[in-house]
Write a structure and sequence with these properties.
It is built from 17 helices and 11 strands. By secondary structure, it is an alpha+beta fold. A 6-stranded mixed sheet has the order 1-2-3-9-6-4. Strands 5-11-10 form a 3-stranded antiparallel sheet. A hairpin with a 6-residue loop joins strand 2 and strand 3. Helix 8 packs antiparallel against helix 10 and helix 12 crosses helix 17. The longest helix has 28 residues. The radius of gyration is 22 Å and the shape is globular.
Length: 452
Amino acid sequence: MATGAAPTRTVPFLTRLTKHHRIPVNALEEASVQAGGELVRLHMGPFRPYLVTHPDHVQHVLTQNQTNFVREGMFWDPLAPLLGEGILSDGETWAESRRILQPLFTARYVNSLAEQMAVIINELIEETIVPGRPMDISRGVSAIVHPTIVRLFFGSKISTADIARLVPAYDVAVTAKAVRLVMPFVPEGMPMPGDRAFRRAIKDIDAVVYPRIREARARAREGLDQDSTDVVARLVSAREDVPGEEGDRRIRDDLVAMHGASTETSATALTWVWPVLDAYPGIAAKVYEEIDRVVGGDPVSTSHLPHMPYLRMFVNELLRLYPPGWILPRKAVEADVVGGVEVEAGATMLLSPYLTHRMPDFWESPTVFDPERFAPGWEAGRHRYAYWPFGAGPHVCLGQHLFQMEAPLLIAGILRKYRPVVHVDRPVTPRLASSLRPPPGLTMTLVPAGRS
């Protein structure tokens, strides 16, 4: 043991997982409470990852010594056919993809697109919402989020029909590996539930993406897209020095990463808006009042956003309790000491903003939804890594600025006209997937504002 390193405490986990087999996230919450902020090992039979919850330890892994903790192993390896080797990997390919994609996600660039985004969202709300008719919440939100980003970034390169194929394919891809997420010790070669659906989803995604890449390459050779702001054209231009299948694959990985950063996490987070409004009518009344007062009957625009501080606080609290990227494992390249505990090379570090955001040492009544936590000045005196819904360090989510603009536009765009009636008879709890999702089949009816 390294000098100054403490003995490692082990927390039983398989028994908890059996107890909470219907809602496995609860097993992790129980383990986090027992850990009490210490770095502990989770006893999962042959697999014993370190549970990292304390903000000091999160900071060490994700920023202070982040080069030693890479995105490999648990979670990452099973999703490799989806994520590829671009910005959601590590090493040289990550750095190259980050350099190419980052300009599309800066606050300045997103702000330049904001009013166009507002127009698109308003149009899609009019096109997709049928008041008085029950709708699947996840599908309804996706029907606005995905086309918004495609219109904004991809122009006409991906058609409405292609979007209709991509949305369910992404949904399957991020949920099908749920069993392997809690049983990472099972060899990849051993068939598990969801494997076949995952492979089909990858084929569907590639069947849409690769033809778009080849079309963009052909246009580039003819000099037709030299001044295009279309994302596919930009990626083709940035990868022009890598020809053939290898170049196509890198562009594909960048496109999939960008799609995930700009749509998948947004759609997941915004699905939680509606059951939360249903569960907290007092908070919902404050949200409705602010939107009615600021927006009224007008189409929502970016000029309204600075005048809706409570909605911004609501979104921040939504991300605290329901961060879409809820689990972010890392693999130690070399031995290290984290929080006084020696960590061996090759160890899996299990980080989770979902758990850190629910620690009572950093959040009063942490399981209660309370937007007032994010009143102006909330950061003062709070640990920088007590709240990290978009990750942290060099791998922080590229889509955070986009989400912070898109979320209030979508929420206010719907609530200026409608009120949600959510069809539930029990508390809505997260289901296990690579992103934090409500249970499937959750529905609501949107009724005109002013009616019950």
